[in-house]
Specification:
- The protein is globular.
- It contains 2 helices and 10 strands.
- The strands form 3 sheets. Strands 3, 4, 5, 6, 9 and 10 form a 6-stranded antiparallel beta sheet that branches.
- Helices cover about 10% and strands about 40% of the residues.
- A hairpin with an 8-residue loop joins β7 and β8.
Amino acid sequence: MISLAFACVCTAKAVACTCVSFPTTGEAMNSSALVFRGSVVDVERLAEHPLMRGRQRYAYTFRVAEYWRGSPTRTIRLYALDASMDCMGTRFDSGKEYLVFGSEEKAKDYQPDPNFYWYGWTDVLAPGTPMFQPITACVPGGNTSASEVRKQLRQLGRGLVPKH
């Protein structure tokens, strides 16, 4: 298991996540359930949850070009939150290609105490439904047009092409 250290830096205009250290591409791949390169073919803004105080959730559908971990089909759906101070969210743009490191989770709600609902999925997916989420805090990956991501792709080597 990778130990990730990060700090969140807040300004009046924007919220950013600053990482103290990053795992190598290989370490990130070994700790991910899914690693693939693909293009976003659909962005669905999910219904707002009243307890999430306006934080948006999205379902992103990717056309998978190649993969290194997991066994995705030609298209895969990932669920993600908008970026925030907790360093968990991300945004993918339709038509762009990304290298994605993901986890497989079961749909549930995260409510640390009765007075604080952090975020959740059970209003859009049945509780316990398997779902893929991008790993966004201090891991490699991102838009494949970035030089660092192209370097990561070279480190990964040729991936497998989904069969169906």
